[in-house]
Amino acid sequence: MNKGKIKLGLIGGGPNSFIGPVHRIAAYMGERYDLVGGVFDIDYEQSKAFAEKLELDASRAYKDLDDFISGELSRPADERIEAVSILTPNFLHYPMAKRLVGEGFHVICEKPITMTAAEAVELAELVEQKGVVFSLTHTYTGYPMVRQMKAMIAAGALGKIHKMDAQYYQGWINPFIHEKDKRAGVWRLDPAKSGQSCCFGDIGVHAFNLLEYTTGLTINKVLADINTLYEDNPLDVDGTALVRTTDGVRGIVRASQIATGEENNIVVTVYGDKAGLRWEQENPTYLKFMEEGKPAQILKPGNPYLSEFSLESTKIAPGHPEGLFDAMGNIYSGTAQAIRKESYRDGAFPTVQDGVRGMNFIEAVLESSKNGQVWVSI
Question: Which ranges carry the GFO/IDH/MocA-like oxidoreductase domain (predicted)?
Fold first, then answer.
């Protein structure tokens, strides 16, 4: 059995990647991983140059996934890469994850997990069969104050939940969407690369995940209205979904990539019969606790009044801001605990089942909107 640092490989995440540095820094944060090699770019020369820049062994800068798998499996078991992070465009997540899981690698994957719900179910069954760890990077679940929110709700701080609201607003696609030639060149609007959905597949699913993660409730019905803005645009760029849980709790998921001027405006709010909680991603060190008949309180990370889960997820002293890198680092740390068969808390990292839930939600949203804004069961 391997011990010590986990040997990590990357598929994607090379010189032109936005998310690549986030994953690399997150992996190093907890000092649980050692980046060894990978397929860093579709251009082999760029991939090799990137590996050289990172001062990695040149023999472990691979040409493609087949080369990666054969190269690593030819090495002694205690020298092989153990976990692989998939940081490619959406359409490659499923085939790459399926190959890697089938060969016994642990996988850390960007979302969406697959292009369809059926593929997600198939992948989940393979993960269980092979006994590997599969971590899906719903990064926002790694924030200390989101974990505090989860712990407080589980402890009954809000009383009986009766309303929940999550939004994820961006405006990044606004400069491209209004001209036919420009929007045709955006890969996230290409179903062959992005999948069935742009807005809800990319960001709406994060809002959905945060509601289920923080409340512990299961959303089983949606009624959605999505907007492509232009008839020749095949994928959604905006939409709203009413949601209901198995317990009958009502809520709403709002997502937009045409919210002009917005950057990464995520807000999740949960109300109970005693109190409410609100967290905003652009102000991630504040958790607002609103009790009936009392002044609102602002809870901040690193303080002794917080839950053990929140404090374990905090890396620096109170008063110092933590952000996306820290949140991703917490997910990598939780994944490492699972890979090394150590004890870890529920919610330490999103699993393959969270991926299945997300794909089921996306498909239910699309079906509801297509059929004239009707209730659809997940």
Answer: 146-277
